[in-house]
Specification:
heterotrimer, A alpha/beta (463), B alpha+beta (375), C mainly beta (108), B: 375 residues, alpha+beta, FAD/NAD(P)-binding domain, D-Amino Acid Oxidase, Chain A, domain 2, 2 domains, 11-stranded mixed β-sheet, 10 helices, C: 108 residues, mainly beta, Ubiquitin-like (UB roll), 7-stranded mixed β-sheet, 1 helix, globular, binds flavin-adenine dinucleotide, binds FE2/S2 (inorganic) cluster
Chain lengths: 463, 375, 108
């Protein structure tokens, strides 16, 4: 018999933890599945361990997560860590594997809270060992207390500065910070400043981090409009173009980052409608005011629908759960509206800073659509920007056809690290808007699963 | 847009073909080769369904005896496919092996091979355990032998459909995609096939509508019991080269092959759900689990590979599992549909047979078992 | 260089990498442990044979694939180390691994 729940939440980040607590509080039989070994999601990763060892380097906003994780642990939900979800059907059938065995569970309401991924950053040399994402470096720090000494941080976005700050606090030497925020973005972002005043303290924090870098004598190189990582089998140096001249910096490690984007694979595979968001340059899942998608009974909470950040994710988690509870007849519409009001108010304030951040940290075109033709776009199948242009020249119209032409996007990451680049590049080469180019048609399993896991699901031989 | 500028004559042809799967495209090609003018109507796009997304097996091994003469004739065309359609269709001639896991299965295969011999075909042979292991070094040691056809093969399905279509087009065949047939009428010896934006007129009509073939037959006043099924397939991440040709199993449903790029395709007739009306398919993971289990049992090294994608294609299934290839009871209409999960190999000959029927009302291959009025 | 941030007491376990014993901290993921040991690359790609190492650390990129206890294609950033674990770099499309006896099952 397949196990059935009233609500299944996928992801135990702020959105998932908030949603499941609210769900359980109102009596819904709730299951939470998460790939990580402990609750917290990306932002509050390994919160319990860090609280226990009293780490200081991760900062105040990280500590906000401690109480959330605690109340999540105390709530009446079934929580399965180490569970990787590889299928969500429009009939709310969920396939996941844990410890080498696949399971199928079903639910009346599914809340997708799978969070965000770092935006692909295809620059020459980004596939070399010793090149990692800034997020990866932060995961090593939070989860394993490992630092990468003398790394060069390259890119743009709040997370980049946060992690440099965490590195400085932890005493890990930083070789340099190469800031790729396009100069014109500062000017454009000013227009959104008035709305962002509520978040002034956070914006000021950003400035403090910048000053801290300078105070720590770490080279902070801005106005850089192109980079390439050099090395044969290992990183040897990074070259960057600063005010039209190329300069070279020897180094052993490079950490890349240019913002986060929603992890939409699972929702798209379930058939949820999406749209291209030009401001954030990524796909958003279309939702109603209770974050229900176009597929009945499937809602999207937190960053997996559109980027709002950790605090917004928590608010959205609560609101999403209230919507689901109402549809389960656990609460009335009036109760739902009343209970949601405080969350909606905080969410509104929180979201006012988004246009400012989105504008300021929008990565430059050439870092989303590589101009160096030899740059690898699809890391798995090692397909270059040049091969994509050639396919378009041959008449390739979109990402799905590109698969047949080149195998681009057909490797194990299933397009998560090339999909955005591919849609935008095809649009550029064929002079079409990205929304007309579209995205990969996603097929389950949305995470490649071991044949053994699938075979063990029903280890029942025929006959 | 463009359609409003089309001349009336654009909708007239000698033959109208419904369905641009491999059989529709092949029929169009064979007719175009004879200088006949054809229009092919396709509700989606050429190769969207079974023909373009199947496992690509080109096999005579283990065929229903009724299909054998057709299959053998088709195999001859496959061996020369590049000369025929100007593209190799990704066709590779290779062995096909059906593995026996028990002595009982082995003796069942022996009976079968003798039966085929008696019908005059000699391509199927038995192999013993040692030969099996030499041919498939990674097969599980419990497998006791099997039967083999040495020169079957496999091809790239979508590319094959594309090649037949392009070749037909180069000879003047016209394809209208995104054009769903709404109604069919016959007046004064002419078929009038109505679609949302046009009415096509032709003296002769061919129904190659696959899983939707029954609906078209109904419009001609005939009942063909063909249902839509969704056949599921999975593909793995790249693996080291460890198996050549195509492998099946006697006692379980399996179709297994490794492509030159290292990925392995696992199929085997397990069904998901098909929705004929909106083209959607849904996977049934318990079926895929059995399929994975079978693959792992026959090839233990499969256990640590990763399944990267799974999908299903919509196919027409008849009650007796063999197709309808038959003149219609209506005048000047012909059927070729319901290939029940093994029509890809028959594509090249299927078009030839239908073109023969259209042009001469006869063909030299035995069609009796495929009559539409057999149900 | 990958370095430990806090040098306070930790428990260790022994694992092997390509048949060489490595002592690693208990509780780490396989990827973190191997990075801390500064082992360089984790695998070579099946397409070009180029070396790769973990890129995302969160289960997305599949560049951390290694062979663990004979099972290829394991995402080392999601699996915790344990005493006696045998790890091998995954070269190309993962070598064909020796069959385990339980897989050589007979047909029921
Ligand atoms: C690497 C990284 C580091 C970041 N660091 C910070 C930071 O320090 N500070 C900050 O303010 N913001 C940070 N962000 C942004 C922050 O993660 C988000 O704003 C916030 O966490 C969103 O919360 P969420 O609940 O929507 O998603 P998340 O916190 O991402 O939680 C989603 C959870 O879903 C799980 N999951 C995903 N897919 C599956 C699946 N198929 N099966 C099972 N489980 C699955 C994940 O393992 C994860 O635990 C970071 C983002 C990334 C990608
Ligand atoms: S490091 Fe990216 S999946 Fe493990």
């Amino acid at each position: 018999m397949t196990q059935h729940y009233e609500i299944i939440v996928i992801g135990a980040g702020p959105a998932g933890m908030a949603a499941s607590q609210t769900a359980a509080k109102h009596g819904a039989k709730t299951l939470v599945l998460d790939e990580q070994r402990t609750p917290g999601g990306q932002i509050y990763r390994a919160a319990e361990a860090n609280e226990a060892r009293q780490s200081v380097e991760l900062g105040k906003s990280y500590e906000n997560g401690f109480s959330l994780v605690k109340s999540f642990r105390n709530s009446a939900v079934d929580y399965v860590p180490g569970a990787s979800v590889w299928q969500l059907s429009h009939e709310r059938e969920i396939g996941y594997s844990k410890d080498g065995t696949a399971h199928i569970v079903t639910a009346n309401q599914v809340i997708v809270a799978t969070g965000a991924l770092e935006r692909p950053m295809p620059v020459p040399g980004w596939t070399l060992p010793q090149v990692m994402t800034v997020g990866a470096a932060q995961i090593l720090l939070k989860e394993s207390e490992i630092g990468i000494a003398d790394a060069v941080f390259v890119g743009t976005g709040p997370l980049l500065y946060l992690v440099v700050h965490q590195y400085i606090t932890a005493g890990i030497p930083v070789k340099a910070v190469i800031d790729l925020t396009p100069a014109c973005n500062y000017f454009k972002a000013l227009a959104h400043m008035p709305n962002a005043v509520f978040a002034m303290s956070r914006i000021m924090e950003g400035w403090r981090w910048k000053r801290e870098i300078i105070a720590a004598d770490i080279p902070l190189i801005s106005r850089v409009d192109d980079v390439r990582i050099l090395g044969d089998g290992a990183v040897e140096a990074i070259e960057y173009r600063h005010k039209s001249t190329w300069k070279k910096l020897d180094c052993d490690h490079v950490l890349l980052h240019q913002g986060v984007v929603p992890d939409v694979n699972i929702s798209l595979a379930a058939g949820c409608d999406s749209r291209w968001d030009e401001a954030q340059a990524c796909w958003h899942i279309l939702v109603d005011e209770w974050f229900q998608s176009s597929v009945e009974g499937i809602s999207i909470a937190g960053d997996s629908g559109s980027i709002g950040g950790g605090v917004a994710a928590e608010q959205r988690g609560h609101i999403t759960a209230l919507g689901a509870l109402m549809r389960l007849n656990k609460i009335t519409p009036v109760e739902r509206n009343r209970l949601a009001r405080p969350y909606q108010a905080s969410l509104k304030t929180e979201m006012q800073v988004r246009p400012f951040l989105d504008t300021l940290f929008r990565p430059a075109d050439n870092f989303r659509m590589p101009e160096h033709e030899e740059t690898i776009v699809c890391r798995c199948e090692e397909i270059s920007a040049k091969q994509i242009r050639e396919a378009v020249d041959l008449g390739c119209q979109g990402p799905n056809q590109l698969k047949s032409y080149t195998r681009c996007g057909m490797g194990p990451c299933q397009g998560r690290f090339c999909g955005l680049t591919v849609s935008e590049l095809i649009g550029k080469f064929s002079n079409k808007p990205v929304c007309a180019v579209g995205y990969y048609r996603l097929r389950p399993p949305i995470k490649p699963l071991l044949l053994d896991e699938l075979a063990n699901m029903k280890n029942q031989p025929e006959n | 847009m463009a359609s409003s500028f089309l001349k009336k004559t654009d909708f007239k042809a000698d033959v109208v073909i419904i369905g641009a799967g491999l059989h529709g495209c092949s029929t169009a090609l064979h007719l175009a080769l004879q200088g006949v003018s054809v229009i092919v109507l396709e509700k989606d796009y050429a190769g969207r369904h079974a023909s373009g997304v199947n496992a690509g097996g080109v096999r005579r091994l283990g065929r229903h005896l009724a299909e054998m003469p057709l299959s053998v004739a088709s195999a001859k065309i496959w061996q020369e496919i590049e000369g025929f359609v100007d593209d190799d269709c990704g066709f590779r001639s290779s062995q096909q092996i059906k593995v026996a896991e028990t002595p009982e299965e082995l003796s069942k295969q022996e009976t079968r091979v003798n039966e085929v011999r008696q019908s005059g075909f000699h391509h199927e042979k038995m192999i013993d355990q040692q030969t099996l292991r030499e041919m498939l070094p990674n097969v599980s040691p419990h497998c006791v032998g099997g039967m083999i056809v040495e020169d079957d093969g496999y091809a790239n399905p979508f590319r094959t459909v594309q090649a037949f279509r392009l070749k037909a087009q180069s000879l003047g065949a016209r394809f209208r995609e995104g054009t769903k047939v709404a109604n069919i009428k016959r007046e004064r010896g002419i078929w009038f096939v109505g679609c949302h934006d046009c009415v096509v007129e032709a003296p002769k009509l061919v129904n190659c509508a696959g899983a939707w073939g029954g609906e078209i037959a109904k419009k001609l006043g005939e009942n063909a019991f063909v249902s839509a099924i969704a056949l599921m397939l999975m593909i793995t991440a790249r693996m080291p080269a460890f198996v050549t040709g195509v492998v099946g199993a006697e006692g379980r449903t399996l179709s297994f092959k490794q492509f030159p790029n290292g990925t392995v395709l696992i199929g085997g007739g397990h069904e998901g759900q098909a929705n004929k009306d909106d083209n959607t398919t849904h996977l049934d993971y318990s079926g895929l689990a059995i399929n994975a289990h079978t693959a792992r049992t026959i090839f233990p090294i499969m256990r640590s590979t990763r399944i990267v994608r799974a999908w299903a294609g919509i196919e027409g299934m008849t009650p007796d599992g063999i197709p309808v290839i038959s003149p219609s009871q209506a005048d000047d209409a012909f059927h070729g549909f319901g290939f029940s999960g093994h029509g890809f190999q028959l594509g090249p000959i299927g078009g030839k047979i239908l073109s023969d029927l259209v042009l001469d009302d006869k063909t030299n291959l035995p069609l009796e078992p495929f009559r539409i009025d057999r149900f | 260089m990958f370095t430990r941030v806090n040098k306070n007491n930790a428990k260790f376990v022994s694992i092997s990498l390509d048949n060489q014993t490595v002592k690693v901290r208990k509780g780490l993921t396989v990827a973190a442990a191997l990075l801390e040991a500064n082992i360089g690359h984790f695998r070579q790609t099946p397409v070009s044979g180029k070396p790769r190492a973990p890129f995302c650390m969160m289960g997305v990129c599949f560049d951390c694939l290694v062979v663990i206890d004979g099972m290829a294609n394991q995402q080392s950033c999601l699996i915790e180390v344990c005493e006696g674990m045998r790890i091998e770099r995954q070269i190309g499309p993962a070598d064909i691994i020796p069959e385990k006896p339980e897989d050589q099952g007979t047909k029921p």
